[in-house]
Amino acid sequence: MITIGTIYNTIIFVNNKRYKEIWNKISMSPFLVVTSLGFLGPAIFASYKGLHSPSRILLLVSFASVNYWRNPVPGLRRSFDIIVARTSGVYFFINGAYYSTYYSTPLQIIGWSSTALMLYCFKKSCYLKSIDKCFVHYHIAFHMATIFLQYFILQSLPSKRG
Predict the structure, then answer these.
(1) Can you give the pTM of this predicted structure?
(2) Residue 44 belongs to what domain range?
(3) Which among 32, 62, 36 is positioned nearest to 135, based on CA atoms?
């Protein structure tokens, strides 16, 4: 039976900012799961080139990201996703900075400007999340820029295939 108290509690619950933040994450999380699965593309490409370490790292990144974004609530899965993402980010940044020196200047400009775009999207999504705004669009753009850069970096790594 619906009472006035039930209706009042429902209205208060819907107007709660924390509820809106969780609802925005959950309603947009399928898109973030899809972009997290996008990390499998560079993983397959790395495996094809015989680069097994980057391939395994990207598989772990994809697994951790999909595992978090399928139900985005704070906890151990989020912490694991952040640790894996940051570690792989450092790994790919070092490899990209080292091996991109073999590229021509226009390709280096594309690589560094894409890195700047990726960092901007990440910082913007963090800022919007901190002020309780919908940050998901910037996080999707961050995933897409990261996937592009991973292809770019993997292309520059020396192939282990005979």
Answers:
(1) 0.78
(2) 18-156
(3) 32
